[in-house]
Amino acid sequence: MENEVVVDRNPHRLMVFDLGKDIMRTREYAQGLEQMHHLGTSVSKHSFRVALMSVRLADFLARIGVELDRNVLVRASLMHDFGILGRFEGKFKGIKGCCLLQHPKDSVEVAADLVHDLSDKEKNVIASHMWPFAATAPKYAESWVVNFSDKVVGTWESVAGALALVFSGKRKTVTE
Ligand SMILES: [Fe+2]
Ligand SMILES: [Fe+2]
């Protein structure tokens, strides 16, 4: 079926596309699609997966009476790593692991420039996503969920990327 149109009916993916559409139209998101991350994916694909896992967890938590702000989850997830865009260029060139502790703060700055109504909760979600490695701790339930999702997704991507490297002998590309 060469001309068949594939319609994505996954409710969580649709929710991320809907709530995140303004972020996903930005130059930063497009730049993130071109920058390699976690051995085998791109910054923006990683961020989309973090948003997806966060809204799935939000639905699960809702069943036990914990209500989370899905708008905050999606927007903050999509922007949480914007602080590493271009990290191998300019002042960071050649410095391995340069941004581990700094990039959550840089991400908040980029997000605040991009989104005029960035809330304190969204700032904390972004700033605390590297806790306990970076100093800012999660203050809200949404912050804990994105922190957890980022670690699970990042670990999975890194392991998959490393295995692809070992078994195929070549690095995955940002399109995979
Ligand atoms: Fe990060
Ligand atoms: Fe991340």
What structural keywords apply?
176 residues, mainly alpha, Hypothetical protein af1432, two-stranded antiparallel sheet, 2 strands, binds fe (ii) ion
Ligands present: fe (ii) ion
CATH architecture: Orthogonal Bundle
Task: Describe the main β-sheet briefly.
Answer: 2 strands, antiparallel
Cα Rg: 16 Å
- The strand line-up of the biggest sheet is 1-2
Q: Which CATH class?
A: Mainly Alpha
Tell me the total number of β-strands. 2
- Share of residues in strands: under 5%
- Structural shape: globular
What structural class do the secondary elements suggest?
mainly alpha
Determine the number of helices (DSSP H or I, runs of at least 4 residues).
8
Task: Give the distance, in angstroms, between the N- and C-terminal Cα atoms.
Answer: 23 Å
Mean pLDDT: 89
Helix fraction by DSSP (H/I, runs of at least 4): 55-70%
CATH topology: Hypothetical protein af1432
The string of secondary-structure elements, in order, is HHHEEHHHHH
Number of domains: 1
CATH superfamily: Hypothetical protein af1432
**pLDDT < 50 stretches:** none
Provide an overview of this structure.
The chain is mainly α and 176 residues long. The protein is built from 8 helices and 2 strands. It has helices at 11-19, 21-24, 27-34, 43-62, 70-79, 103-114, 120-127, 141-168; strands spanning 36-37, 41-42. Strand 1 and strand 2 form a beta hairpin. Helix 6 runs antiparallel to helix 7 (120-127). The protein starts with 10 loop residues before the first helix and ends in an 8-residue tail after the last helix. Bound molecules: fe (ii) ion (2 copies). One fe (ii) ion (FE2) binds at residues 46, 50, 80-81, 150, 154.
